[in-house]
Amino acid sequence: MSTYTEDQRKVTTHRLIEMKQRGEKIAMLTAYDFSMAKLIDEAGMDVILVGDSASNVMAGNMTTLPMTLDQMIYHAKSVVKGVKRALVVVDLPFGTYQGNSMEALSSAVRMMKESHAEAVKMEGGSEIRESIERVLSAGIPVMGHLGLTPQSINKFGTYAVRAKEEAEAQKLISDAKMLEEIGCFAVVLEKIPAKLAAEVASQISIPVIGIGAGGGADGQVLVMHDMLGINKGFSPRFLRRYADLASVINEAVGSYIEDVKTGDFPNEKEQY
Ligand code: KIV
């Protein structure tokens, strides 16, 4: 456990709201597999997001759109098995909830039953209100996601900062209030001006988790491959790298290749 995590109790949606109330920041990070999820949980993470960014960092796609429900269930199941303390939230993938609230419900129910995750995340505001309400009505906790919503990249046409204009900022504020009102337990705000994110965080009682949304949010989320320096081809201004695993791995694998080629590995102690 990291030194910041004295409280060993299981993190719940309720406890995240309590954290906001006492001004304790919430740490959230993505994971997609058992081994990394276990390490991240043991380090004391509050929330682990099985993001559909798996599409980019695990499957090598350009966008998150190709991800299927079966693939997200597979990743979520693997993560859940490695986690004891963190709350595990899973993205419902593109095309499994937007246009039809009954489909949204059946996607979320399948996700909860088969993966044993504890909550789902859904991208969008008023346009998907009915779908979110239907999922909530089944007792499934929902985390909202506003601002830059990568599943709508073909509508935006760019990954640039969202809600810089007044009209979009006002819609984002009203969507965030709506998500709180219908019963979402938290909302992710992605790549929006810091001032706007701070304003939203001060106006709603549920936690606001930011990514590229400044320090006024109630918590922060990053994609694990980006912050650990595994994926070095992605360097937005908001990203802080905490390690350079690409270099560590390159060096380690290079040494292994050299040892195999020279016959140094295995030595006498490394064989039966
Ligand atoms: O899929 C993902 O990793 C996400 C985070 C970037 C918030 O949605």
* Strand tally: 8
The 3D shape can be described as globular
CATH architecture of the largest domain: Alpha-Beta Barrel
Rg result: 20 Å
- Gap from first CA to last CA: 37 Å
Mean of pLDDT: 97
Helix content: 40-55%
Brief description of this entry?
The chain is an alpha/beta fold and 272 residues long. The chain has helices spanning 13-21, 34-42, 54-57, 69-82, 101-115, 129-137, 153-156, 166-182, 194-203, 224-227, 245-262, and strands spanning 26-30, 47-50, 87-91, 119-123, 142-147, 186-190, 208-211, 219-222.
Please characterize this protein's 3D structure.
The protein is an alpha/beta fold and 272 residues long. The model has no long low-confidence stretch (mean pLDDT 97). The chain has helices at residues 13-21, 34-42, 54-57, 69-82, 101-115, 129-137, 153-156, 166-182, 194-203, 224-227, 245-262; strands spanning 26-30, 47-50, 87-91, 119-123, 142-147, 186-190, 208-211, 219-222. The protein is built from eleven helices and eight strands. Helix 5 (101-115) links the parallel strand 3 and strand 4 (119-123). An eight-stranded parallel barrel has the order 1-2-3-4-5-6-7-8, surrounded by seven helices. Helix 4 (69-82) runs parallel beside helix 5 (101-115). The chain starts with 12 loop residues before the first helix and ends in a 10-residue tail after the last helix. It has two domains: 13-241, Alpha-Beta Barrel (TIM Barrel); 245-272. The protein binds 3-methyl-2-oxobutanoic acid. Residues 30, 49, 51-53, 91, 188, 190, 211, 221, 223 line the site of 3-methyl-2-oxobutanoic acid. 3-methyl-2-oxobutanoic acid (KIV) binds next to strand 6.
